[in-house]
Amino acid sequence: MAKDTLLSCRLLHPLPKMSAATKLRQMVTDPESFIVAPGVYDGFSARIALEVGFDCIYMTGAGTSASRLGQPDLGFASLNDMRAHAEMIANLDPSTPLIADADTGYGGPNMIARTIEQYHRSGVAGLHIEDQIQTKRCGHLGGKSVESAETFRQRIAAAVQARRRAGSDIVIIARTDALQTDGYEEALRRLQLAVEAGADVAFLEGVQTEEQARGVCRALAPTPVLLNMVENGATPSWTPDQAREFGFKIIIFPFLTIAPAYEAIKASLQHLKKTGTTGISKDFTPKKLFTVVGLEKAMAVDAEAGGSMYSGV
Hints:
It comes from Purpureocillium takamizusanense. The chain is α/β, with parallel strands linked by helices.
């Protein structure tokens, strides 16, 4: 085929872009990569993380429940709540992979298959499914209960089978909360069962010591392991460099954006109540806000179509 003909074909039928799931899968399997994913809880915090330039972001279930529902992370959020939130965040920049909490998978094998299918169609690159009972709670709260190891294995197997049927590259992360309920050895056994069932990444929730951190990475190698870095929770505060040295492949920071947002919002409201003024910085204009959330792209789309709706903005 002549070069000019080939070029014309490519212009008319451009090659499909790599999906975010495929990109995340390559990052996870690249021996030189280490993934730092800041937790985002809504579209605005996600936009800021993208503006800063992170290569991967994480949708926190606790943050979703708090921001979308105004409720604690006690199983209030349904599949529809989580899927819709994840779809919005994932599609702000489809080239940046989003890892999203999928709680327990929201039911038995058929519901878990539905969860995988919906997250896949929504553009989510990776998700984690845990072994807590359906009325779950945040992994860093006490009093948790977990299902049997066999039920956990079935959840992961159902997820893997659904991914295969969908022709998806979505990365399946198996999370166990059994460390707090049944001890380290049982938690490790559950993760090994999950890996045998086809999980791509292992996730030991609530790691308490460096010995446990190193041990789970060593025992599950070469399977990548994720560290959940919840400040002031069950896990000591470790940096990405420390996590990588321990043997982890991914580190997520679920509270990274929602905690400072709470402090800043509360301080501003208290300032208004006390002084009658907002104290907002003069450089934070409406245009700056809209620029953060995509004003320039919206203007470009309108202009490319021949419109002038946003001229002079």
